[in-house]
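Design job #97: recover the sequence.
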């Protein structure tokens, strides 16, 4: 599982307005191996979606990738032409979003939409593309006779599956799934996660699972990347993070997960609120909420450090 498919290094993606700069992704580095599911976790506004969009170079204005490298299988995505990028999107990298209606056209049959995606990338005739579309629908658990349905004729869970079908029809090596189950009930959520898991094991697909739900990631992923205020605070194997979190923010996130084993389940929200990204605190962005704040946390940013194979950015630890 160790062959690296994606390497992101020192990525900076900022949103510019006349009055301020939001450093939504600020010097982020991470790697994803082939066949690995990596969970990207953080509260709302921490820069997760911006990171996902950066990988396919689809950050909307006023956002801009200003520095860094995104290497897919040896090639720097940020150096590709628009034409080369279009070849990669959908074909080598698939994307699914929280709201299927952001990529399903409500006025067109789902089959036609999947066929169109296939035909943009493969030189095959329409009948063969329709064949692939039907197979893909079956693969995500939608009966193929639903191929001529419009999105509104499908349930929420089915629509989500249709969108997944669209993004995996061409067997991408990397799937970016941004809050793919947040809007769905627990049962449907679990089925969709099973489907992603099957894709990972059967197709050796790499998956970046973007979510605010650390419990989901612990249950389903191989590795976890924790983000706070545009920065990575900790990266680790699920087992290490769940059993022995290092970063204070990771600790608090874990404590906020209700313990289903115990009868008294109590969701402990993390005190305070996420930083104002137009004007984040100096030093460590987490210090105003951190129970362990040291003097130097307030003016000196902690760097990502490797200790005993673990990666963490916090002044409590020294490499
Ligand atoms: N289109 C945009 N224009 C300006 N600011 C944006 C835009 N999209 C996101 N942001 C800002 O970037 C930061 C990160 O947002 P986002 O990547 O959506 O975080 P997450 O997905 O973790 O909730 C937030 O402060 C958000 O307000
Ligand atoms: S660097 Fe300081 S403020 Fe930031 S998480 Fe570590 S101890 Fe807390
Ligand atoms: Mg988001």
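Job complete. Output follows.
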């Amino acid at each position: 599982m160790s062959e690296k498919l994606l390497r992101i290094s020192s990525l900076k993606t900022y949103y510019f307005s006349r009055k301020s700069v939001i450093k939504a992704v600020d010097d982020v580095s991470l790697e994803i191996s082939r066949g690995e599911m990596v969970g990207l976790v953080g509260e709302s506004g921490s820069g997760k979606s911006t990171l996902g969009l950066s990988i396919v170079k689809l950050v909307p204005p006023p956002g801009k990738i200003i520095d860094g490298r995104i290497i897919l299988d040896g090639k720097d995505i940020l150096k590709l032409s628009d034409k080369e990028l279009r070849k990669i999107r959908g074909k080598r990298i698939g994307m699914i979003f929280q709201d299927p209606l952001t990529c399903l056209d409500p006025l067109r049959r789902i089959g036609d939409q999947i066929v169109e995606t296939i035909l943009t990338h493969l030189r095959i005739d329409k009948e063969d593309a329709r064949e692939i579309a039907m197979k893909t629908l079956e693969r995500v658990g939608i009966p193929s006779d639903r191929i001529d349905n419009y999105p509104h004729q499908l349930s929420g869970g089915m629509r989500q599956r249709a969108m997944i079908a669209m993004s995996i029809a061409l067997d991408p090596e990397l799937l970016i799934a941004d809050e793919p189950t947040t809007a769905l009930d627990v049962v449907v959520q679990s089925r969709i996660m099973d489907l992603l898991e099957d894709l990972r094991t059967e197709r050796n697909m790499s998956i970046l699972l973007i979510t605010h739900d650390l419990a989901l990631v612990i249950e389903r992923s191989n590795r976890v990347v924790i983000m706070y205020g545009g920065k990575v605070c900790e990266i680790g194997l699920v087992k290490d993070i769940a059993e022995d979190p290092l970063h204070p923010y990771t600790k608090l996130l874990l404590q906020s997960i209700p313990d289903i084993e115990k009868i008294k389940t109590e969701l402990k929200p993390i005190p305070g609120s996420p930083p104002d990204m137009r004007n984040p605190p100096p030093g460590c962005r987490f210090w105003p909420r951190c129970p362990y704040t040291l003097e130097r946390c307030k003016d000196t940013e902690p760097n990502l450090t490797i200790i005993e194979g673990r990666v963490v950015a916090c002044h409590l630890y020294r490499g």
